[in-house]
Amino acid sequence: MSYLNSSVRENTDKLDAAGNTTAAIGKGFAIGSACLVSLALFGAYIVRVEENSKTEDYTVNVLDPKTFAGLIVGAMIPYAFSALTMSAVGEAANEMIKEIKTQFQEIRKGKEPNSSRCVDISTEASL
Predict the structure, then answer these.
(1) How far apart are CA 11 and CA 2, in angstroms?
(2) 22 with 14: CB under 8 angstroms?
(3) Do 73 and 103 touch, CB atoms closer than 8 A?
(4) CA angle at residue 99 from 95 to 105, to 5 degrees?
(5) pLDDT tens, position by position, 95-106
(6) 92-98 long-range contacts, Cβ below 8 Å, gap at least 24?
(7) Would you place residue 113 in the very low, low, confident or very high pLDDT band (cuts 50, 70, 90)?
(8) Distance of alpha carbon 104 from alpha carbon 99, whole angstroms
(9) Residue ranges of the domains in the chain?
(10) What percent of the chain has pLDDT over 70?
(11) In a 3-state reduction of DSSP, which class is residue 66?
């Protein structure tokens, strides 16, 4: 499509394959580290509960409804924060698009673009 030599396509295909392999390996490490961190956090929770319990032989039972509900809610928290973050990014992007459309109309009328307004939108959304 870009009318380059076929060797360029061969080289970019090799680089693409290397990038995909690297990404797949990185995902495996990320999933493994997330599992390890969740186990460590749950272990710390158990230790803290045992330290603060009034009886000597307190154990945490995962099948206890309150503990199980706490685990489920705790597991959902990262997804909730991710969803809120994605929603905020989408809203900021929509506001940025509206501003850009407005500025294009103003540029057609001979006005100068106001890039600081776009920076303000980004900064406001990130805060």
Answers:
(1) 15
(2) no
(3) no
(4) 150
(5) 999 999 999 999
(6) 92/121, 92/122, 92/124, 92/125, 92/126, 95/121, 95/125, 96/121, 96/122
(7) confident
(8) 9
(9) 1-58, 61-127
(10) 95
(11) helix
